[in-house]
User: Fold this.
Amino acid sequence: MKNLYALSLDQAVNLVATVGTQRTVLLQGHMGCGKSSTLETLASMFPDHHPVYFDCTTKDLGDISIPSLNTDEGYVKYLPNEEFGLHLGKPVILMVDEFGKANPAVKNALLRDMLERNRFPEGSIVYATTNLAGEGVGDLLPPHARNRIITVEIAKPTAEAMLEYGVNAGWDLGVLGFIKQFPEILQSYQEVPDPESNPYIFHPKQQRAAFVTPRTLHIASDTLKMRDSLDDVTTQAALTGCIGQRAAADLMSFVKLADQLPSLESIKQDPYTAKIPTSASAVGMVVYRAVSLIDKDWVDAWLRYMMRLDKRWQGFFVNNTVRSAKYDQDKKNVLVTNARFTKWCTENGYMFAADKV
Assistant:
């Protein structure tokens, strides 16, 4: 039941945006899965608000508010930390990050703001994030604190969701291929009773120095994009220190595969003779690259090349571009205004007919 009602990040953001002016939502989820990134999303939804990232792990009681130095009034007045943005005179979006790891005094000091919002300008949004208690990284909430907020669990993203994000973010092709081939790298430890059955992920029953999370996959992608300046041993050492030994070894096989793909230049120059990879993994990486990089200068060449691929990969390209709500709008416009692309859609609409049922 708990997993059934775990929310995606999009659902969680919508919940915070809807009730956050009145009630505090605590997003509780796996490490490295994008909880903190929700602040950026909310800031884009509410451009007239001031986003505040309040990291509880770095705070003590004196960081919440301190006495005013003005003693002429005959009583003590407490001044809030500038970090809250209350002096700006406009609504804020306050993300209380790592709330479960805050020391008890900080938790208690924040509880009234979380419940009442008296100090904040009208329309301000307050929410919090923390890790799952089962991860054993120090996230604890006493009953009186939990009783004042709405606690929801954030689901770990699926491989499909991670691929969509990675493609749109321009992740390295090796990482995208790795995710496609090994979707178990995004399993939750809650689904894996025996840690030995999944050597890639964090598991509280087995100490692992490095492991795969969405965050470490992003780090791995950034590292691989600079591998031209590194030798293979250094690259694999860096990946091992980021995603773990087993994951690094498997990822490197996709890195070497990516180096053997047909070059973009060969597709642009002669799409009818450019090499078609023999393995499904390599074909997938060619398509991921096109989804990430397509532009008006070579869209025609790509579509000619794409016609030589299996229909399933053609459909994959369409699903992850014009049919994806999160795909870059400028790239969508390049495709939907292209006569060759619209002709393909007309001829192959049957591939998506089931979506209308």
